Amino acid sequence: MAKPLEIYSGFITRHPITVIFIMLLVTVYSIQMIGTIETKKSDTKSMLPNDVESIYTLNSIENEFGSTNAVFLAVEVDPTYQGSDEVRDVRDPRALAYLDQLSELSLHTEKVIDVTSATTVLKSINNGRLPQSEREVEELAGKNGLLINYISSDYSVSLVKIQTTDDVDLIEIEKELDKLIQELPRPPGLTTTLGGMSMEGAVMQKSIGPDMAKTSTYSLIGILIIILVLFRSIKYGFTPMSTIIFGTIWAMGFVGFIGMGMSSQTSGVLSMIMGIGIDFGIQVVTRYRFELLNIPALKESHPDLDIGPKDAMAVTLNNVIIPMFTTTLAALIGFQAMSLGKLTFLGDMGTIMSYGVAASMVAAITIVPALMIIIDNMNISKYLNKYMKFINRSR
């Protein structure tokens, strides 16, 4: 393995700018692929493999007869003032008229296939006409026991049950129904809210992106603080961070490239990838600093040799790549073992973490050494002096 490692380390140390340029192209493409990542529906069925008998049967039924999602509109009595003329009973004719309008308009929403409510039941048993008084509602309720499925026992809440097709965009249907609620005039004393398992799925889908951004930011800040305290150097503190920054971008880009998608269960993998991947960057930088300390002694014993940061980085790569590759291989085996269980989201989590760890290792042996060589070969003080002279002349 010595010869291939020497060839690789020699290429990295001789062409750091070329390496950075290639990796940036990969990063740009990965960022584009990240934009294609879709959020997957999170429900019990999606967590289990298709070969489970109950899931297989459910899929067969849905293939034959189709499947639906349920969305609920809860119309509640919520008067603001005591003694006012506000609605205080959902059997109030004003509340029933509002429920009827809500049901009719909901039925015309895209992907909605059926809407049932107290008013649809009352109209079905009253020749298509709404009752005009609470007493008439009581009389009709005695003829049909279905009304208790839509009106609470204390008459404070009434439900509108909406069935949609299985392929409905949950976020879009939420927007449409929320718009309907806001625009439809509501009698005083009533409030209307959305609910149901489908809406929970919509909330989870909307929360995945912000949650990933929040946890990733906190992870980056926490890791950066620890590294700065450990190395006590801005240069050696920020450079290892490129490992997890580029590694996570490449990993998520690959997830988008293969069309894998993300769910609420797998949205926390970025923080775990960062926590594991930063070790690769720390290994490279720590060994590189150790090799730099040996350069003065080597120059003193071999004054005829021209030894610099490139040589230190070449020795570093020759010595860390094999241990890092071994660590990565062990991690990949462990993560892929998560796919052996029944829960599919654990397999997805293990797969994404495998991509992240592998990408972090690649970043550690490409981006990090190239950056270190470029930074250490730059005479920063020289450029600062030129800048200060330019500023003084300008004054």
Please, could you describe this protein's structure?
It contains 16 helices and 4 strands. The protein is an alpha+beta fold and 395 residues long. The protein has 2 domains: 2-41 and 239-394, Multidrug efflux transporter AcrB transmembrane fold (Up-down Bundle); 46-200, no CATH class. The longest helix has 35 residues, at 197-231. The chain starts with a helix and ends with a helix.
Strand-pairing-aware structural class: alpha+beta
Q: Please state the second-level CATH architecture of the largest domain.
A: Up-down Bundle
**CATH topology name of the largest domain:** Multidrug efflux transporter AcrB transmembrane fold
Unreliable parts = none
* Cα separation of the termini: 59 Å
Domains (count): 2
**What's the β-strand tally?**
4
Q: What is the number of helices?
A: 16
The largest sheet, given as strand count, sense and whether it forms a barrel, is:
4 strands, antiparallel
Summarize this, please?
With 395 residues, this protein is α+β, with helices and mostly antiparallel strands. The protein is built from 16 helices and four strands. The chain has a four-stranded antiparallel sheet with strand order 2-3-1-4.
Question: Key features?
Answer:
single chain; 395 residues; alpha+beta; Multidrug efflux transporter AcrB transmembrane fold; 2 domains; 16 helices
Topology, pairings included?
Blueprint: H1 2-14, H2 16-34, H3 44-47, H4 53-65, E1 68-77, H5 93-107, E2 112-117, H6 118-124, H7 134-143, E3 157-165, H8 170-183, E4 190-195, H9 197-231, H10 234-238, H11 241-257, H12 269-301, H13 309-336, H14 344-364, H15 367-377, H16 380-394
Antiparallel strand pairs: 1-3, 1-4, 2-3
Helix pairs in contact: 1-13, 2-11, 2-15, 9-12, 11-12, 11-14, 12-13, 12-14, 13-14, 13-15
